[in-house]
Design a protein that fits this description.
The chain is built from 15 helices and 25 strands. The chain has helices at 12-19, 23-27, 46-54, 96-100, 114-119, 150-156, 202-212, 227-233, 252-258, 283-289, 300-303, 306-309, 346-355, 411-420, 424-434, and strands at residues 35-38, 62-66, 84-88, 105-106, 127-132, 140-142, 159-165, 172-173, 176-178, 184-188, 220-223, 243-249, 274-279, 295-297, 315-319, 323-325, 330-331, 334-335, 338-339, 360-364, 368-369, 374-375, 377-378, 396-399, 402-405. The longest helix is centred in the middle third of the chain and has 11 residues, at 202-212. It binds coenzyme A.
């Protein structure tokens, strides 16, 4: 609702107006050595960030904490390294070079636990930079497409500076902040960055169809980030009564809801609702979640809590990986020594699903990378690779060649199962490499 349509019968409107200023004025309250939380994913407040970067000459040693952000992150450029130091819980494309060059830092942590780092004061927050929806008739703005860790950071911040963007969807759930909690307001009207899903390749389609064999009717789904989840969703049209409890939603979910495949009727946690903590996709997805009571946004310490996840009926977690070794160790945030992404909610959901009644914990990945030149299944992880999901946690690994069931299996059985779903060109080499192991 445009602000002019809101009847000023409540006192918040005066307060709101008194806080409105230009972006330059609003960010002038940031001081050297402040610790800043930047609302993340598709909600990074780009106008405030641009204004902050313009003030770089006056700022020194400002610490920035963030998840993955879409859009640019100029504060991570080498020119501003004296002014800003980025600390990222998840490495997106816009800070990958800075992290690998050592200018920015990566914090490996479960998404379920990040709010606790703020609430406990372990990571202090001086300033919170937000992008929220315009206030409703009661003076509440919505955090929109990124609720996740924003609530915790906002609660602890000494200073809250918000872009109030007319194009930020008004999402529902634990998604609201009252105007009285905002210190400085900058009114904006710009589109959100979009994550356009690529058309699935034949390999991704084959993986999607193999994963779909593991998805039962009435399952509650979590789908992670990357190309595979959308390919999986496209293969679920013949299922019935699916539900969603997922840290993120992408566009593919909307098709399944509109087709009546996702009903959320069989869910045991928040039945009837799609439960989520952030969304990243196209404008179609952002419009879908706008004012939609079907979609319940909650914080990531709730949605991603493995104990909450495990209470779901037939919880089925589907996440991707960069490399899997022959014992089932999953590398998902590194490619050898290169820091690539983050933990996100992979382990939260793998653990929650594994403990759920009739739950399934699935890692799905193409058998090769770099146009077929590299096998992603190998005797050992590459030097420098970190493990995100441990070999005791992963139950199923799926490639375009089939499904390897690892749970309860010996190392030898795991190796055989994983070799059987590796690319045929690499199977004998992996077997040769495995012969170095006494147990093989
Ligand atoms: N060796 C060398 N290069 C590799 C590789 C390997 N073993 N595995 C992948 N790559 C390359 C790919 O070829 C691709 O390169 P390109 O961009 O030049 O084509 C790039 O690395 C990315 O791989 P891809 O498989 O396309 O990534 P993705 O976008 O599908 O994302 C993850 C996969 C694992 C990075 C992503 O799912 C992730 O970050 N997971 C961890 C967090 C998580 O699961 N959270 C869950 C809820 S959000």
């Amino acid at each position: 609702m445009p602000l002019s349509d809101v009847k000023p019968k409540v006192s918040w409107l005066q307060e709101y107006k008194s806080k409105v200023k230009t972006a330059e004025e609003a960010v002038s309250y940031i001081k050297s050595h402040d610790s800043i939380y930047v609302q993340s994913n598709a909600a990074a407040p780009q106008i405030l960030l641009d204004a902050m970067v313009k003030q770089a000459p006056e700022l020194r040693g400002v610490k920035i904490y963030q998840l993955m952000t879409l859009g640019k992150a100029d504060y991570a450029l080498v020119d501003y390294s004296e002014s800003f130091q980025v600390n990222s819980f998840f490495i997106g494309a816009n800070v990958r070079e800075a992290v690998n060059a050592g200018r920015a830092n990566y914090i490996p942590v479960f998404l379920s636990e990040i709010p606790r780092l703020f609430l406990s004061g372990e990571i202090p927050v001086d300033v919170c930079l937000l992008q929220v929806s315009p206030p409703d008739a009661h003076g509440f703005c919505s955090y929109g497409v990124s609720v996740d860790c924003t609530v915790a950071a906002r609660k602890k911040a000494r200073l809250v500076i918000a872009e109030v963007n007319k194009q930020m969807p008004r999402t529902l759930g634990r998604a609201f902040v009252h105007v009285s909690r905002l210190d400085h307001i900058v009114e904006t009207d710009h589109s959100l960055p979009e994550l356009i899903p690529a058309k699935p390749s034949d390999i991704e389609k084959a993986i999607g169809s193999n994963v779909a064999r593991l998805v039962d009717n009435e399952a509650t789904l979590q789908l992670g980030i990357g190309a595979i989840p959308n390919a999986v969703l496209a293969n679920l049209m013949d299922k019935t009564n699916l539900g969603v409890h997922s840290e993120m939603l992408s566009d593919g979910i909307v098709d399944l809801i509109e087709a009546g495949v996702i009903t959320n009727d069989a869910k045991t946690v928040m039945p009837g609702k799609v439960a989520v903590t952030f969304v990243m996709g196209t404008r179609r997805l952002y419009d879908f979640v706008d004012n939609n009571p079907l979609v319940e946004f909650q914080t990531s310490d709730y949605i991603n809590d493995p104990f909450v996840i495990s209470q779901n009926h037939k919880m089925t977690a589907i996440n991707s990986a960069l490399q899997v070794d022959i014992t089932g160790q999953v590398a998902a945030d590194t490619i050898g020594n290169m820091l690539y992404s983050g933990f996100g909610g992979q382990v939260d959901f793998i653990r929650g699903a594994a403990h759920a009644k009739n739950g399934k914990a699935i890692i799905a990945l193409p058998s090769t990378a770099k146009g077929g030149k590299i096998s992603r299944i190998s005797a050992m992880l590459s030097n420098g690779s970190g493990v995100v999901t441990s070999r005791a946690d992963v139950h199923f690994v799926v490639t375009e060649y089939g499904i390897a069931q690892l749970y309860g299996k010996t190392l030898k059985e795991r190796a055989r199962a994983l070799i059987s779903i590796a690319h045929p060109d690499f199977r004998s080499q992996i077997e040769q490499d495995c012969k170095k192991y006494s147990w093989y």
